[in-house]
Specification:
By secondary structure, this protein is an alpha+beta fold.
Length: 294
């Protein structure tokens, strides 16, 4: 791995070869493993080498970063060796843990041929699903980070108190708090309704051929947890499907109070002006102190 400082932000930014695949926080471009990228220590994210480090604001020009000139100080632990943090970090760590466990199982089974067995074996679907989930969270996190401004704050990968579960993304706007669960599923999301006249109405969330109704239950539980922390602040839930087969016209819907939509529409709704019901910075601080990084 090679690292070098870049520009006036040399105290916080490093040019490096990525150990893991990532997503540019500014343009959302996928960055392959071992690709050259800029690691931003302050935000613990990466960006393309050619992307400007200025942060865009909603409805205005990009605001250049200001730094205090001075010699760069080498971190005690390089970003490539440190555990990944930020959007999708806990899913990425779980994938790496499961992958290592699967490989160790094969090595023990095949002995001296263990390396060959690992090279020829496909990843287990249950293990691969964690990598797919991490990619979805990373891609959505990069898009959300690109919209951050004085009127939009974002928190990623936050641990639910008393649980091993996490909240993928929280977006704080003047109009309320959004709880966002990112999913990288194939197929077209739709709603199927059963009953409604002689028997109770039941809404089912279907993605392709998969019954994903439990995902709605999960978001509702996250919303109730954040409501206990945020007090009277409005809290809304959203399921954001990254890479799904959305139609050209329409397609988004709401089921049991949870928005089901795609990344571009989500960010458009977050950036939409509306009533000012809460202080963004104060609410972000409250949530950050109550919901620790996963």
């Amino acid at each position: 791995m090679r690292m070098e400082t870049t520009g006036a932000r040399e105290a916080t930014d490093k040019r490096m070869r990525l150990r893991y695949a990532g997503v540019c926080r500014l343009c959302g471009t996928d960055l392959a493993a071992r690709a050259d990228a800029i690691y931003e220590k302050a935000t613990r994210t990466v960006r393309c080498v050619d992307c400007s480090p200025s942060v865009p604001t909603v409805g205005g020009d990009a605001q250049p970063d200001s730094t205090v000139p001075g010699p760069a100080t080498a971190p005690k632990q390089t970003p490539a060796d440190a555990p990944p943090t930020g959007a999708g970090s806990s899913a990425r760590r779980e994938y790496e843990r499961r992958k290592a466990k699967d490989e160790e199982r094969l090595r023990q089974k095949w002995g001296r041929l263990g390396g060959v067995a690992v090279a020829l074996s496909d990843e287990r679907q249950s293990t691969k699903a964690w990598a797919t989930g991490a990619v979805g969270e990373e891609r959505l996190g990069a898009r959300l980070d690109g919209c951050v401004s004085a009127s939009l704050a974002v928190l990623h990968d936050r641990l639910i108190p008393g649980s091993r579960a996490n909240i993928d993304h929280l977006a704080i706007t003047p109009g309320g708090i959004w709880i966002i669960d990112a999913k990288c599923y194939k197929g077209r999301p739709r709603i199927e309704i059963e009953g409604g006249i002689l028997r109770p109405r039941v809404d089912k969330l279907i993605v392709g051929r998969r019954n994903c109704t439990k995902l709605v239950d999960g978001v509702q539980k996250q919303v109730s947890i954040v409501r206990e922390i945020a007090g009277e602040a409005p809290v809304v839930g959203a399921l954001c499907f990254v890479g799904a087969d959305w139609p050209l016209i329409g397609g988004s819907f709401t089921t049991r109070g949870v928005h089901v939509l795609w990344p571009k529409l989500l960010t458009k709704m977050l950036c939409k002006e509306g009533p000012v019901l809460l202080d963004v910075a104060e609410t972000e601080a409250t949530l950050a102190s109550s919901l620790l990084p996963a």
